[in-house]
Amino acid sequence: MVKQYQIVLDPVRLRAFNIPQAKVIEAVQRANQETGGFGARIGRSGIHGSRERLSAVARRLRKIPLSTTDSGVPVRLADVARIQIGPEMRRGIAELDGEGEVAGV
Length: 105
Fold this sequence. Notes:
- The chain is an alpha+beta fold and 105 residues long.
- Helices cover 34% and strands 30% of the residues.
- The protein contains 4 helices and 8 strands; from the N terminus they run βααββαββαβββ.
- The strands form 4 sheets. The chain has a two-stranded antiparallel sheet with strand order 1-6.
- The chain is elongated and about 55 Å long.
């Protein structure tokens, strides 16, 4: 089973800091470009890479700045999201009439 780091956003915290989801995506992509890459691939289903690289990726992800509060305190990704390891999401499955999975064409 392929493992990946997953960024699980907390909608209540995003709203409290007035940060849209699109801004989080931009910040993660920008940080990936500025650092020359996390050593991992960022895609719709998550962030993929080797175990050693993913550990370093998690530390860097948590520190990504998203904005600042009115008093100048930085809001980082770790303030609005949980970063966890999980299985890669299954893709390409189909279900027919409640009878279970079937092959698609």
